Amino acid sequence: MKSAIKDVNGVKVIELQGKITIGSGDIQLRDMIGNLVKEGQMKILVNMGGVTMMDSSGVGELVGCFTTVANKGGKLKLCNLTAKITDILTVTQLITVFDTFDSENDAVASFF
What we know:
Helix 1 (about 25-40) runs parallel beside helix 2 (about 55-70). The chain has one domain (about 1-110): 2-Layer Sandwich (Transcription Regulator spoIIAA). It is built from four helices and five strands. It is of the alpha/beta class. It is globular, with a radius of gyration of 13 Å.
């Protein structure tokens, strides 16, 4: 998995590309979000537009990251979900847990 972090109006946007699967991206995602929380970042947006695959380990890490941020009083939101990722989150009923957005701009605006 490849990733990049950028700041958009005080929101840390993590852009992901590739797979979030066991041994490929799951721990990387946890470490990235954990480091942002340690730095005091409470507005985190994960742009999933480039994610090609996510297995149960990836789903678990996403939930774990959501919980970590929420427990510190922050917000973690998702945007640009592919049809495949939307299906996974719908089947697991996690689509109701995460705030999801079709565009990065809408997602960033929702923090304010």
